[in-house]
Structures are given as C-alpha cells and as structure tokens.
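Before going further, learn to read the protein records used in this course. Taken together, the tokens spell out the fold as the letters spell out the chain. A record is reproduced here so that you can trace the correspondence yourselves:

***
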Amino acid sequence: MNLVIQQQPTLTQCPTGRVSASLDGMKGNRSSLLSQFAGTAAVFLALSCPAQQAPQATAQQSAAVQTQLARLNAASRNGPFRADWNSLAAYRVPQWFRDAKFGIFIHWGVYSVPAFGNEWYSRNMYVQGNPAFKHQIETYGPQSGFGYKDFIPKFRAENFDANAWLDLFAQAGARYVVPVAEHCDGFAMYDSALTDWDAAKMGPKRDVVGELAVATRKHGLHFGVSSHRAEHWWWYGVGRSFDSDVRDPRYAGLYGPAQPMALFGDDGSKEPDSDHLERWQPPDKEFLDDWLARSSELVDKYHPDFLYFDWWIGQPAFQPYLQRFAAYYYNESASRRQGVVLTYKQQDFPENAAVLDIERGKLDAIRLLPWQTDTSISIHSWGYVKNDEYRDAKSLIDELVDVVSKNGNLLLNIGPKSDGTIPDQARAILREMGAWLRTNGDAIYGSRPWLLYGEGPTKVASSARNSDLQQFTPEDIRFTTNNGSLYAIALGWPASGELRIRSLARGLPYLDAPVCKVNLLGSSEAISFRQEPDGLHILLPSVPPDEPAFTFRILERHGGSTHCGS
C-alpha cells in the first residue's frame, strides 16, 4: 500500500541555510565527492522555506505495519534471545559462514535503467549542480514531468533468469548469494505487504528476491538479503527544494519521508559527518516502525541465512530497533535450527552480537571473530552503469586470499543490466575466479587462520573505506590452515625462481616440526626446498602455472618419525 499525504502536519522547524547536497554516488566515497558540487547545490531556504511535510501512511498500510510488529513482539518473547545487548551477546557465527569464504552481492533495481553515474542516481538526479541532475533534464526532461518513478515501467527485467544467474555464481565458486532487497531508493525488489512500490506489483511484476531465493537453495548455496531502507528517511529530501515530483503527494509512497539530512539549524549545504550519525536528523517513530516491519517481513517471507544492513542503521535512533530486530531474527532462526548471519558496520552492534562488515576495506591483522568485506567487480558504481570500469580477476583473488588469511569472508558485488543480463566483463571475471578456486579451494573453503596471516612488504590500511584495491608483490605471502595442512599462497611469482618464506625459517617457534614436503596445488611436478635459518626456500618450476596466485601445501614431520604430514 502506498504512503499518501493525508492532512499532513507541517514540521514546526525548517532547516536554515541551504538544502543538503548529494552524496554523489558510491557508498564508500561520500564526503570527498560531496565537495565537488556542494556549492552549486545551494538553495537558500531561509527566506522561503517550503513546508517539510511528514507523509503519513494510509490506514491499510498502518494496519499492516502494526500487524507485522505485533507478530514480531509476540515471537520475540519466545526463544533464547531478548532485545538487549547482553542477551544478544550469546550469538554465535554459524560454521557454514566460516567455511563459505566467498559470496555474491547483487545491486539490481530501477537505478539500472538510467544507468548513469552510479547507483545513487535516484537521489542525485534531484541534486542541482550534480551531473545526474543535468543528465536527467537533458535526456528525460524536467524532474517535475519525469521523475525517478517514471523509470519503473522501463525496468522490465525481460531477460532475468534466476537459475542462469545461479549457474554462473556456482561456477564462480560462491557459497552464498545476497541480492539487495530494497535499496535507498525505496523500491522493494520483493513482494511486500507493506508497500505497493515493489517489483512484484510494478516494473517487472516479479518477486525477484523470491525467485533468487528458490534458485540459490536449488543450487545448494546459502541465501541472504540486504536492506538499505534506513537511508530512505532523507534520500529524496533534496527533491523538495525545487519543482519536482518529490513534492507531489501522489508519490509519497515512493519518495517519502524525504526529510533533510542535517539537524535543523545546521548547515544543510553539505553532508553531516558520516562517522558521527548523531549529527544527522534522526528518523521519527513512524519511519522506525516501518523499517522494523519491513526488515522482519524479509525474515518471515524468505528465511534468509544472511542479512546485511547498510551504514545508516548507526544513527542512534535505530539502537532499540536493532536490538528488537536481532532478537527476532535470531529467535526465528533458532526455532528452525538455522544458523544465520547479521552484519553491521563500524560500531553499530557490539562486536560479539553480529558480524562486522567493512565496505571496500580490509584489516591489517587477524581478527579473532569472523568478519567480512564487501566490494564490487565494478569500480565506479555498485549498480550497472554505462562505461563503468572493472577490476581484474587477479586483484579480486588477491583480495580474497588476504581477507581469508585474516579470518574474513569476501562478499563480491555485481550490477546486472535493467533487462536482467549480467555484463560480459563481470561474467568473465567470475569465471576466472571460479577456475582459480577449483584448483586452490583447499586453501580457502573451510580454512582457518594460521598463527600469522602472512608476510611481505605491502601494507593494508585497517578498516579504511576504499582501501581494498591494492597491488601485491611476489614477496607478499598469505597463510591459511585446513585439515592439518598449512597453506602458503604467494601473490606473485618471483623472477629469481625461488620463493623464500621467512616465517617458516628453521628455529622459529611457529611450526611443531621441520617441513618434510611441499606441493604446488595444480602441479604434479616435485617441488624441491630447503629450510634454513633465514626462511623456507622453495625452488620453483621453470614454467609458472597460469594462475593469478600460487598455493603451496606445506607438510611437517610428526611424532619424531619418518611420517610426513598429519
């Protein structure tokens, strides 16, 4: 059911200064990109501030939200978890996630129709001075006549085949799949009882999330969803500053609440500090109730093994709602004996109550608790855009190896086109990653960190967004363990013909016994080596395998006998 304005009250306060500018695109590059156009986005409201009206739900939608919340509240009273951090600290990460290591993230929605700039087009097209604003007018006309809603009929997904997608993901070696169930634009990609603005009722008129859930489980993989609904509170607020369809109450179900980002009285010409969300305008109870209802609806409809929340759940007003949701999700999964993963960013959860996710970033050391990084095959946008650039398979395999060596998982994003086809560049990269994993998977799937994550000169910026794209050298080596074997993965092939692993030097305390055998995965050639005080020296084959990274299985002599290996 749509949100519509019904005798809406005018907010008693109006933001002074100027309307907030766009975050201009990719999730991880908000503040730096904003400065490019903040000045041109200035629209003073001090003299003539349009009424900031708070859309109110229809009676039907309000009833649906309350029914969903009543179900959540009743279920939360049953089960091992309660809605407080002390109780939620009993959560344990399931083994399937620790073993899986590699998943596929899917940003697909209406924003794939304009396919311009990045997946934040739905917001940026309303930001005066933004390239998307200019493109929108030049290509489609003024936003008062052609708004974001008008892309929905063009989003037909006529070539979408969930099983074909899953064939590709399985070939790539992924073990879990996570489509975006609702992006910040407010258009749900699933059949929701809480809104009419969804893919089952408009656009493709298909329950995209539902079809992917069936196909994923049919292929034996784990299924998850992501929600970016939290940001929707302020997503279209810029559209109120000029003559656009965001002001039209008929479309409040998609565009509302369209509130300002900044606190009233603060400078609205730039984004507030993204590391201090308490400095943002907090959502009201109606929005928070709706957020909780939509989030729990996803649990009820699809029973996801994995649920990803985007960054704005860190706004302090969400705290009690996060606890209520986590208790519900964990209790529901416990009743089905289902191990589930709920991710958070920065300090949004206590670290033992859910799984840390670092967006386009990594860690510089082993983390004792499991964690995840999410990044994208495409460089400039998480969703499909024309003329994007793509990372190569080697850089992504190196990243996977580095993350796994530190007890993490890699969730790799793709952005399909609006017709439901996956770009050729992305398909080729996924197939190359799958080929590497078929040879080297013993060092990845089901592995655990060794005492050291690795060695080498390349430094990793800990927890920093947009720090995951790195070039490694042949001296960079990463370690994992699996079934009693130690694996050393070299991220390059030394020109000297010899690989020296300093951490495995004779006399160091890290190994229980001397090295007795070294194998190169994917090669039948015998590998010569010698263990010296300055490292384990491995003599390499004269012709390197055609691989982006090279995995050596290292066995120790056990029990003081001649037996080699566990």
Q: What stands out?
A: The radius of gyration is 25 Å. The CA atoms of residues 529 and 538 lie 4 Å apart.
